[in-house]
Amino acid sequence: MEARDAELKKELDATLHIRKELGEEYESALVDSFLEKVGQRLDGAVDRQVRRQLAEQQMVAARDARSPKGSSDSWGERFGFGIVSLVLAVPLSAIGGGVADLPGLLVAWAGIVGVNVVQAARFSPNLFGRKRGRDTPGSDSDW
Fold first, then answer.
1. d(Cα 30, Cα 22) in Å, to the nearest integer?
2. CB–CB of 94/88 below 8 Å?
């Protein structure tokens, strides 16, 4: 910012020097010209600041959209899913065991366990040692 201040000081010094050479009749035009330059610099600074803040807000909004929902919602959903899974496990076990004996029972329970593992991984991305941080490859970063 100091480089811009030095530049602005040079502009003011030049304007004052020109005023001395041209006289007071051009003072109004010189002041208007200098103020226009100051206004342009301020507009540029404000535009940059607004763009920076907008980009930061968009990044925060994008990160919030990707983050999991609050724990109060997920607990009820997980509990309900577990109950439904257990209730459905009984008839699935009976059908699998009745149709194909032990292999059918194993396939039914493999499906039940698989669905529950997927559901658990959905709510806990770190469950199987996968960390979604800034240092892991493939993670979203600022670069």
1. 10
2. no
Taking every pair of Cα atoms in the chain, the longest distance, rounded to a whole number of angstroms, is 108
Length of the chain: 143
105 touches 93 (CB < 8 A): yes
Residue 17, SS3 per DSSP: helix
What CA–CA distance (Å, rounded) separates 31 from 33?
5
Each residue of 60-84: pLDDT tens digit?
Answer: 888 877 765 554 457 778 888 888 9
Helix (H), strand (E) at residue 80: helix 71-123
DSSP, res 24: G
Q: What residue type is 142 in one-letter code? A: D
pTM value surpassing 0.85: no
Q: How far is CA 119 from the centre of its chain?
A: 24
